[in-house]
Amino acid sequence: MKYNYNLIFLFYLIKSICNKNILRLLANEGEYEFYGNFKDGKADGKGTVIYKNGDRFEGNFKNGLRDGKGKYYYNNGNIYEGEFKEGKIEGKGTILYKDGEKYKGGFRDNLRDGKGKYYYKNGDRYEGDWRKGKKEGKGIYYWKDGDKFQGYFENDKKGEYGIYYYKNGEKYEGSLKDGERDGKGIYYWADGDRYEGDFKNGKRNGKGVYYWNDGERSMGDYINDKEVGLHVTLSPSGHILENFYE
């Protein structure tokens, strides 16, 4: 039996318009089914879209595109709720990932961008700047155990400078490499002692000065957190003591 597919399509098109829903084609999104309001033959106002891949959007449309506030259900279990602009996720919003993680903040061109907070499933969280979906700029990373890092991020990683705050009251402020203490920095102990000098691979390496909380200080070289060579110690009263470490 032969069918006149043009007549069948016209029948369903007229039926859909009468019911305020229509089956349309978008070149960049494929086939979808729309339920809602129209203006000049395009989706406009409140509506719901069911895409061929199983995704679903509920929210506002303008000139045939998602625009304004809405909620997008991905077929992989992720859910986004927030603002859209010209068909893209843009503005403020929240995305809940199927693994339990969450991001709340700014978006641009479908990516995390601007100020935002990311909650990891292990209990950690990040608050700060984002650019093109990655941590970029100033931010604070909180570990669930109470430690935190405040500083700069580049390409989703800690940058070249920052401050580590440890739950035991200790603190490091200075240069970093791959997230480790590296370069010039200051390490503060909870009892008031501090070290100012060179670091490498997370440890005291190079020249530095150790200050005790009673005012005494010692100057010399370090290798892997240990004193080496000649160290000169100056007491608060001005006495000088020399020690040699192998």
In summary, what is this structure?
6% of the residues lie in helices and 65% in strands.
Description:
The structure is a single chain. The protein has 246 residues and is mainly beta. The chain has a domain at 1-98: Histone H3 K4-specific methyltransferase SET7/9 N-terminal domain (Single Sheet). Helix content is 6%, strand content 65%. It has one helix and 20 strands. The protein has a 20-stranded antiparallel beta sheet. A hairpin with a 2-residue loop joins strand 4 and strand 5. The radius of gyration is 30 Å and the shape is rod-shaped. 22% of the residues are buried. Mean pLDDT is 89; it is low at 1-28.
Mean of the pLDDT scores?
89
Q: Roughly how many Å apart are the termini?
A: 97 Å
As residue ranges, the low-confidence spans are: 1-28
CATH architecture of the domain at 1-98: Single Sheet
Strand count: 20
Give the CATH class of the domain at 1-98: Mainly Beta
Helix content: under 10%
Q: What would you call the structural class? A: mainly beta
Largest sheet, strands/sense/barrel: 20 strands, antiparallel
The count of helical stretches stands at 1
What does the radius of gyration come to?
Answer: 30 Å
Strand percentage lies at over 45%
Stated plainly, the CATH topology of the domain at 1-98 is called Histone H3 K4-specific methyltransferase SET7/9 N-terminal domain
Shape: rod-shaped
Summarize the helix and strand pattern as letters. Answer: HEEEEEEEEEEEEEEEEEEEE
